[in-house]
Amino acid sequence: MTTMYETIEHALEIGAMYAGVDKKVFDGVKPETETIAWPHYKNIEVYNIKNSKGVDVKIGVGKFREGFDLWLIDPKTGYALRK
Question: DSSP of 4-57, one letter per residue?
């Protein structure tokens, strides 16, 4: 089952944890809007950052029920995993 986060900030904090970086990595990063095609078409805000190994990663946040969901996106393939 998908986790629902109460705030965007909390979702990004967990996204930073998955990337192995401090949540401050999102400071000053402007999100881009992208469309995820699974399980249905949905617009999410995507943040392009570098993980703890210096590899480009994408962290997405979208509306989900009464809160937000978190997406981990492979920038090479576009494969998105909702966490």
Answer: -BSSHHHHHHHHHHHHTS-GGGGTTPPPEEEEE-SSS-EEEEEEEEE-TTS-EE
Angstrom distance (rounded) from CA 23 to CA 10: 9
Question: Cα 65 to the chain's mean position, in Å?
Answer: 16
| 12 has pLDDT over 70 | yes
pLDDT of residue 1: 62
Average pLDDT, the chain: 92
Q: Are 71 and 83 in contact (CB under 8 A)?
A: yes
- 59 closest CA partner among 15, 5, 14: 15
